[in-house]
Amino acid sequence: MPESRQVALHRWRRRDPELIRRLMPFWGWLYHHYFRVVSDGWEHIPAADPVLFVGSHNGGLAAPDMHMVMYDWFRRFGLERRVLGLAHPKVWMGYPPLADLAARTGAIPYHPRLALAALEQGDSLLVYPGGGQDTFRPHRDRGRIQFAGRTGFLRLAIWHDLPIVPLISWGAHDTLLVLADVYPQFRALHERGLPWLFGIDPEVMPLYLGLPWGLALGPVLNLPLPVRIRTRVCPPIRFERAGHAASRDRAYVRACYRRVTDTMQASLDQLAGEAQR
pTM, whole model, 2 decimals? Predict the structure, then answer.
């Protein structure tokens, strides 16, 4: 008999408030001195009801802008108002220590049952739909929202009538320099018999310059360079239709996808312009 959603969530959720408290001084030092973060728009977050935070992030697996948003959340709302991050299940497959740390700071695998269970408990959710294609996008595309056409987050929001609160950032793309994504070439080699490392399709194969490797190939963990990061919480986006039927209307979902990405692109263009003045 399949386990219930709540049982599944209990099995995967390992959020450790004590670990978060111990990490806060380190995150705070990074926030104020290493990345010198400038952040605004937090007044746009609804007072109490669950929301779906949708972000675009940069900087490889280190994803420093994501961690700085987490620090901002904890210092503004404490540990009582929970937000769970939806992480790609392959993180648990390919990077167990990183997945363990992510889970203890509030991440769960991106699975519909787990997301629904979290919402039933009144938790908000944080998702970066672009995944590896977003955080490892080439430096020349640093100013472009890249969600790779993924709409699962939208179907979740529409089905449960959740407002979407976009999160954007600028600067973290300079913590490493992604030259290109050569995944198509490696995919072609795989189809000719070259196995994936550890048997896991990485879905992205970045070639980048960064610490500590110098020139690196593949989605390997990096040490981010100390550059200024700017983050912004945008006004909530609410949709005209909600419910299960609306979430299965492909044309409507695609229209909502364009609305979200166009809104976030305009906000990112504005933030980038402000940063470069």
Answer: 0.90
